[in-house]
Design brief:
Distance between the termini: 16 Å
Number of domains: 2
CATH topology of the largest domain: TIM Barrel
CATH superfamily of the largest domain: Alanine racemase
Number of strands: 17
Radius of gyration: 22 Å
Shape: elongated
Number of helices: 11
Bound molecules: ligand LLP
Order of helices and strands: HEHEHEHEHEHEEHEHEHEHEEHEEEEE
Length: 382
Amino acid sequence: MINSDILINNKTPFYYYDIDLLNRTLEYIQSEANKYNFNIHYAIKANSNTKILKHISSFGFGADCVSANEIEQSIQCGFNPNSIVYAGVGKADWEIELAINNNIQCFNCESIPEIEIINEIALKKNKKVDIAIRINPNIDAKTHKYITTGIEDSKFGINFNEIDAVLETIKKLKNLNLIGLHFHIGSQISDMNIFKDLCIRINEIHKIINDKGILLKSINVGGGLGVDYDNPENNIPDFKSYFSIFNQYLNKVKGQSIHFELGRSIVANCGTLISKVLYIKESANKKFAILDAGMNDLLRPALYNAKHKILNLSSKDKLEKYDIVGPVCESSDSFGKDIMINKASRNNYIAIKSTGAYGESMASRYNLRNLTNVVFSDVNHI
Ligand code: LLP
């Protein structure tokens, strides 16, 4: 629970991070993943706050990065460069160079032209670099269309029907080692059967590649495990079932390592956006609670129509219906329509739950608003 001292002593809006919950989540992941020797890479994009990164790296996890700046920040925060995997459809030359200079573990490659450029830069540096091919398995993750990535027409990954051309290209390039395959089919996946389908598809693809005489050192299954946004009190996702599906359905090959890139499921629940009511505004048919937090602080509702549980921390009065909106000059700057919260008035504290993932990391200074403050549960703010 967020105590009243924290509310009173910090300027809203702010992200509040429950470090105890983050630690418990990390311990649980570690114990479940260790059962099967699975390797976890934290997807930095979900939350790249330096203190959060230091906590996660202290558990010995690797990092999954999608830009050179993420690579630098994760190294500065204690991640071992040799545990960093690097994905993304548009890696710029300077970013590739920085990744090679830091001897990262592996490039997850998304196109033939990218593979050729990595080889060219590695050649100039007289280095040999490890790469994996990101394959688009054509599985519908049945999640929001903006975060579905594994279907055929998505910009991500290489379609499997191009695999021969990709393998031919790699064979000719002397400064690359093909070490593995990479997959990521989407985010906020709540149906565990989709992960089972992914395993079955990976086995098929793996076998076809093996039959060509190519042995792979690693399989990276990506991230995507969803969280229960409706019930933030169910605050640690079911990592036990999740890892056991991969253990059960993914064919095991001796000496091969299995990698996961988890973002949301690690950090979503430990974050809460705390805001204050500026005004209650009534129109003919609506009551608006206007907050001092906006879409620049938390973009998910405006961008994906995402629903986060919203609570009034300052009132026990009867429930009333509000459109809960921010101050930004956009109609999409809304956290929810017709939301029931305890009767609200000016200066009430409002909590927007499960915002530790893709909250602070997607914040901006739109309307020249300040970047959102951050408060940690384990720091005395008084
Ligand atoms: N690996 C790759 C290659 C990815 O693209 C992503 C997320 C992950 C791992 C981590 O996925 P996770 O475990 O967090 O589901 N901003 C959106 C989510 C975008 C996800 C992008 N890729 C949101 O707020 O819902």
